[in-house]
Amino acid sequence: MNEMLDLKLVLLRGESQGPIEMDGLGRSSRLRMQLQKKSELSDRLAVNLLGLIADGRLAPGARIPPERQIAETLSVSRICVRSALDRLKENGYIESVQGAGTRVVRSSEKLDQLYAANLENVNDLGNFCGYLDEFLAEWVDLSEQAEEVATILQPLLAVARSSRRFDPETEYRVRCQLARASRSPGLELLLRRMARGYRCYYNSVPPIDRISDRLAEAAGAMVAAARAGDKTALILAMRDYNSILRSAVIAGAGGPARRAADTELVLRELNAHQPEKLSDIIAREIAGMLARAEGREEDVLIGERRLADVFGVSRVSIRHALQKLKEDGIVTSRERFWTRAAKGDEDAVREARDSFEASVREFKLLCNLRHFQEVWAARRAARHASDKDKADLRRILAEMRRPIDSLDRSIDLDLNLHLTIARSAGSALHFFVNEVLRGTVTNYFVYTLKNPDLRGPREVLLKQHEAIVSAILAGDEDGARDAMERHVRFFQNNYDAYMVSSSAA
């Protein structure tokens, strides 16, 4: 993966490591999509500092808070802080100043690259946040939640009417509440994981005194439309609101804000929440495995060693996760090396089965979100794909043309192709969404390609993939967009027809 894409991903993730094995994309070897392991505190601290430098809150020449002060604020060791600072020094973002501690370098090629990466993220986030607002509005039920949604949107109107500085936290909180109102665990997860991205975008909005009247008018229209239960009017008002913000961001683009660093603000920003425990993540994934198929009474789970390989973690982490599931009554240990679904615990398994991956509504909702992303990525890939990207796409397509006996192999190649297109697009945001929803992404390919009513004949899929890749290789942006649109529409139509026939049966 190129250095710029890597840097943009780091700024969005808040940590340097990711769950998708990037080196495996475009190759014929098996693709692995692993759990994202808990990053070291020093890694997160370094990336948080990097984010403050990228958006200008730590401007060139700004002094970094003292090592001791950072350690006390975050309740971490000074060794942890020193490790983070040393990493940024090695990468050329900060420097030691004799008698004055540490400061951001005044200028460097690395700093310019960081600003460019942040600006590209802001541009992508502006488009995606606007789309996601309309998506959230589409999935809330105004027939039952009109007053609730109007109340959620009210703070946007209050901020605009006050004509004070734009409030990123209010904007982000409103989106999280809309995701909760949509009753979609998947959207809630996406909003939580996109916290850094949202704040990055909203922090780039300049003072709103010149646009406050227009923002207030659009926000007022949003509140009124929600209260009236008019979804179409709500979406149009949201579009207007985001267009005003987007224009303001574009007008103020061109580099980070050169404002003095506020030590208190810097320390508050660095005091980020710690990542979710790895054992909790694994426990949730295993519960999902039980719910999808492997959790019938007396079914035997694969051993700790195999589970460790599946999730790419140590056996100790697997053991902790299984112990948590045991305490929750979802599994029980019957033999030294085996763990089985707990006998008689139908409620626990049913609760897992009702998780968002097993929900028909949720599956369709997240598929629609992915389809938007796929079409957008295909168009961008036609413009940005490197020679290496194109060679990788040709290689995967050549593998697809050969006789394939294993359906799992077909699924792996299909997933690999789409992720390689995502990488070729050069958009960290699109790739990040794939990382966040990797479980759903994988399940989508498994579910659709293992169901003959959904996948259709192999020859049809191959022709669709050939059309997409050919357009990307030719640099035909509209052709790539249209080919991907036909591809995802094919699955949407098949899925809708399948659900109708299943309901009738």
From TrEMBL:
PROSITE patterns: HTH_GNTR (PS50949)
Domain of life: Bacteria
One family name in Pfam for this protein: GntR
Molecular function in Gene Ontology: DNA binding; DNA-binding transcription factor activity
InterPro entries for this protein: GntR_C, TF_FadR/GntR_C, Tscrpt_reg_HTH_GntR, WH-like_DNA-bd_sf, WH_DNA-bd_sf
Keywords: DNA-binding, Transcription, Transcription regulation
Boundaries of every HTH gntR-type domain copy: 39-107, 276-344
Entry protein name: DNA-binding transcriptional regulator, FadR family
